[in-house]
Amino acid sequence: MDDLFMWLIALWTFIMLGLMVIGGYFMFRKFLKRMPKGDGYSELDWQAFYIDKALPLWHDEAKSMLNELVTPVPELFRDVAKERIAGRISKIALDEGAKKITLDHIMKGYIIATPKRDHKFMKKKLNELDIDYTPYEALFEYADDEKQKFSIFEQTEKVSSRSS
């Protein structure tokens, strides 16, 4: 009986260590995003800046479309995904001098902000909403890739120069 108890304690220790490592990994990633870049601002600072600057461009229809597009994301991560996508959309719309956020801006921002591993779910959601994404097929190469980290600005600059 004592052996069983010791094994359970050892198992519990490994489970707790594993959970702490997983949590630490995600906290470290958030810490890295908060680290200032060469210009003194972090990725999250710029994301918040563009969202705030473009807030008047967002109308109810665009907000509801964004909310609908992030429904496949688990609820725990949905707010983070929404902010990330909204930051990309806002940057693109501001770069183009738009008067309001359109479906075109939403599609561009949504595609480049969605990690490549999630494209299958993204395309499924777009098909459910009867949104034709074939005109944006070339933008899938600019999507977030875990192996090649791009800044929000590098991606949106490429998209803006491509559409000009």
Describe the protein in words.
By secondary structure, the chain is mostly helical. It folds into 2 domains: 1-34; 40-163. 66% of the residues lie in helices and 0% in strands. The chain is elongated. The chain starts with a helix and ends with a helix. This is DUF2621 family protein. The chain crosses the membrane at residues 6-28.
Provide key terms for this protein.
164 residues; mainly alpha; 7 helices; transmembrane helix; transmembrane; DUF2621 family protein
Brief summary of the model shown:
The mean pLDDT is 85. The protein has helices at residues 2-34, 43-54, 60-69, 75-95, 103-113, 119-128, 152-163.
Rg, nearest Å: 20 Å
Helix content: 55-70%
Task: Give the rounded overall mean pLDDT.
Answer: 85
Q: How would you characterize the largest beta sheet?
A: none
Task: Please tally the helical runs, counting DSSP H or I stretches of 4 or more residues.
Answer: 7
Count the beta strands.
0
Q: Which structural class should the secondary elements be placed in?
A: mainly alpha
Poorly predicted ranges: none
Q: Tell me the domain tally.
A: 2
Molecular shape: elongated
> How far is the N terminus from the C terminus?
73 Å
**What percentage of the residues does DSSP assign to strands (E)?**
under 5%
Topology as a string of helices (H) and strands (E): HHHHHHH
